[in-house]
Amino acid sequence: MSQTYINQGFEKDLEYGTKGTNENDVKISFKKEGPWARRSKLEKGLIFFLVILVLAVIGLVIAVVLVRKDDSKTMPEVCGTPDCAEATARLIENMDMSVDPCEDFYQYSCGSWKKKHVIPEDRSGFNVFGVIRDNVQVINKYLLEDTMSYPNGSGVIKAKDMYSSCVDLEAIESKNTTVAIPLLGELGGWPVLESNPGGAWAESEFDLSRLLIKLREYNNRPLMDIYISSDSKDSEKYIIYLDQPDFGLPGRTYYLEENLSHMREAYVTLASSIAKLFGANATLAEIEMREVLAFETDLANISMRAEDRRDNEALYNKMTISELKQNFTEPDSGADIQFDWLQFITGVFDIEGVKIAINHSEPVVVRAVPYFEKLFNVLQKHRKRTVTNYLMWYFVHKNVVGNLGRNFLEARASYNEVVYGTSASTARWKSCVDYTVSLFGMAVGHMFVKETFDESAKSVALDMIGNIRDAFNELLDELDWMDEPTKELAREKAKAMREWIGYPDDVIIEEKVNELYENATIDKNEYFKNVLNNLKNSAKSGLQNLRIKYNKNVWTTPPSTVNAFYSSIRNNIMFPAGILQPPFYSKDQPKSMNYGGIGVVIGHEITHGFDDRGRQYDKNGNLQEWWDASIIANFKDKAKCIVDQYNEFIVPEAELNVNGINTQGENIADNGGLKQSFRAYRKWVEQQGREEPLLPGLNFTNNQLFFINFAQIWCNNMRKEGMINSIKNGVHSPGQFRVIGTLQNSRDFANAFSCKNNHYMNPQNKCYVW
Questions:
Q1: CA of 702: how far to CAs of 16, 361, 591, 684, in Å?
Q2: Which of 212, 553, 638, 724 has minimal CB crowding within 10 Å?
Q3: Does a structural domain hold residue 222?
């Protein structure tokens, strides 16, 4: 067998150069010498080559092991936890990796999200915030419908009863207009209804001041907005403010722009339809509601543009009531419509539950001087009947339509379809959850925190805030447009900035929550009655503190809120429990994602203390100029770069440009927040001495993960009508440009993704303020 095998092996070798060697010689050689001696030169060469190859492979393996062992001290590992796998899945699910990140990072990060998330029929837009809010809404629904838990919490019980009365559509439908008609009569009647119930109006008894006072008792502020708040220049005291009102349509431009005329038609149709549901004559309702539109249009024409209302110093016009009467002269005795400033303001503060004496020397801050200079001339152009129809419609639109039967809700849904692009009404339980939370936010928050909140998030957020504040100070040191004395004042303001995280301490104490709502009266079988009581309570609580010290430590925002805030008066930043969840924050996702998420939000809110309006307040929350003229000029020059940059962005859904002036505060905060959070993250990595583990299945560095998670926070889809509303009235840029605009200014981003100069995402000209 062995002989045969050897001969077979030689056959090929002989074929290539063993001729002249006879068979006997081979056999003799095999018997007398060892195996190696019997090999041919070719065979020996092949064996030698194989040995060298094996040795080389072994050496390579040893080298790789040694390198890996050495690099394990500095190179990141791959995270193997389920939470990291979940984070990977979430990122991939949202991304469109066919897009070049240096050409359109928003589409790269959010392209798949946009394809997979259909805008709900009841909304004009949908975004990541909306996804989280939907989840919170479901949790709150469950908590409010659970009648067995928290049996001793009177505040919680009142919240549940409020919700129960709101979702009882059968009871609401059975009562319908019968609950509202007595109210219309109490207010003096709605003229358009004429002889129908609720329409008993007499022109001879018209008294503008008296009607405005009565509406203010139900927390309505048409024609002129009167309220109390912290005195901007002495923030521990309350003061009376006067301002222009809001409108029935979404904003002043809706009355003035020709291309929005179809929305004005929808508004007239809504108003006349509601009047008809109360029994008005169809023809009369159409005529008189068009007169109301004309009156509101005149008010819109004299109101200040949003672009002219960003300078808080210019809006702070303090005067006594005596001076108010001189500066905004009341109609003379022969005018058709009379008004008296002192009568009006004293009447407002004389409503039940307030009862505060007011005289001519009472200080008032007027925030819309141009509006009040022209208001009384506009009033004289219109009939008393028209003015009354407007005032009553304002009340009905804001407080009645959404709280009656299906026919009223259907009329509003038709209006919303034209103005907001929605094609369905919001599910009743959702509206009722939101309404209940707006009234009993701490009672619902008591349950929400106990059931869902991870307490460790507080300490983590505090650490991040400290790191990001340090980053702000570092960047402040590097500024080239601010002198050292002003930088020191800015450091002091940043240091004085307080942080509120999760919820106020009292919210978890049942007795404290009960005390908070001890004066609230709720009847689970009388929804509309509850609504009216809530309006009155809101009016009283909003006015009765005029003579007391302003308490900067009162937290009123519901803990379940999915948002974050900065207050100039309090000089504090707030992050309710509702926002401390993925993708903003998770204790188990990489720090890079947390800093790209909630970290950027933290930096955003800190920067609000130094944006075009926040910078006007000092560290104690007082409106006073703490910068000299040259530094202000430098700031405005830097801010103008931001304004001009965002003005150039065209929103495809509406074919409109972003309003760079109205959005500048948020854009400045976005840019500053991103820069601070990335700096803080890299400092955190430096302190750890190594990069943190990467996400599995992704070829992204942690720096890249930071920016991807930042971008995915702003994934959104918007209807045309919703985008029009956002651009005309909003202070935030659309999500697409919150990503693109901010990252175009970020060298850190360009470095992370190796974007070449003059790529769309890495333009040569970069704007910065902070």
A1: 60, 62, 9, 12
A2: 553
A3: yes
Q: Are 696 and 86 in contact (CB under 8 A)?
A: no
**Taking a C-beta distance cutoff of 8 angstroms, is the pair 572, 555 a contact?**
no
Do 56 and 98 lie in one domain? The reply is no
Q: What is the pLDDT of residues 430-483, one digit of tens each?
A: 999 999 999 999 999 999 999 999 999 999 999 999 999 999 999 999 999 999
Tell me the pLDDT band of 80, cut-offs 50, 70 and 90: confident
**307 is known as an active-site residue:** no
Is residue 155 in a domain? Answer: no
**What value does the CA radius of gyration of the chain take, rounded to a whole number of Å?**
35
The residue among 383, 398, 424 that closes a domain is: 383
Q: pLDDT above 90 covers what percent of the chain?
A: 86
Helical pair 384-399 and 208-217, crossing angle rounded to 10 deg? 0
Question: 362, 666, 670, 721: which is the annotated catalytic residue?
Answer: 670
One domain for residues 304 and 362: yes
Determine the Cα–Cα distance for residues 370 and 327; give it in Å rounded to an integer.
11
- Residue 580 falls within a domain, yes or no? no
Bridging pattern class, strands 317-320 and 363-366:
antiparallel
Q: How many domains does the chain have?
A: 3
One domain, residues 475 and 615:
yes
Query: Is the same domain home to 490 and 596?
Result: yes
Residue 57 has pLDDT above 50, yes or no: no
Dist. CA 102–CA 752, nearest whole Å: 10
Please report where in the chains the tokens 């709502």 appear, as a residue: 517
Look up the domain containing 57 and give its range.
Answer: 2-71
Contacts of residue 184, defined as CB under 8 A and 6 or more positions apart, other chains included, come to 190, 193, 197, 198, 199, 278, 392, 396
The CATH number of the domain holding residue 261 is 1.10.1380.10
**Contact yes or no for 576/617 (Cβ under 8 A):** no
Q: Is the pTM of this model over 0.85?
A: yes
- Our answer to whether residue 605 is catalytic in this structure is yes
Band of residue 41 on the pLDDT scale cut at 50, 70, 90: low
DSSP string, 114-167: HHH-PPPTT-SEEEHHHHHHHHHHHHHHHHHH-SSS-TT-HHHHHHHHHHHHHH
At what angle are helices 702-712 and 82-94 packed, to 10 degrees? Answer: 60
Of 125, 152, 247, 204, the residue nearest 720 (C-alpha): 125
Residue 8 CB-density burial (10 A; 0-12 exposed, 13-18 middle, 19+ buried): exposed
CB 746 within 8 A of CB 767: no
> Is the confidence at residue 9, as pLDDT, over 70?
no
- What is the C-alpha separation between 553 and 332, in angstroms, rounded? 46
Give the integer Cα–Cα distance in Å for 662 and 357. Answer: 39
Examine the pLDDT at 735 and tell me if it is beyond 80: yes
Whether residue 232 is found in the same domain as residue 325: yes
Q: What is the dihedral of CA 85, 88, 89, 90, to 10 degrees?
A: 120
Q: Are residues 487 and 617 in the same domain?
A: yes
State the average pLDDT for the chain: 90
Range 364-371 average pLDDT: 98
Q: Which of 356, 383, 410 is the last residue of a domain?
A: 383
pLDDT-derived band at 40 (thresholds 50, 70, 90) equals: low
In this structure, what CATH number is given to the domain that contains residue 728? 3.40.390.10
Identify the CA nearest to 617 among candidates 567, 549, 669, 665.
567
Task: Name every residue whose Cβ is closer than 8 Å to that of residue 327 and which is 6 or more positions away in sequence.
Answer: 319, 366, 369, 372, 373
Which residues are CB-neighbours of 764 under 8 A, at least 6 positions away?
Answer: 757, 758
Active-site position among 231, 605, 618, 653: 605
Question: Are the beta carbons of 269 and 414 closer than 8 angstroms?
Answer: yes
Q: Is residue 517 part of a domain?
A: no
Does residue 60 surpass a pLDDT of 60? no
pLDDT at residue number 195: 87
Q: 285 and 369 share a domain?
A: yes
Q: Report the alpha-carbon distance of residue 11 to residue 718 in Å, rounded.
A: 79
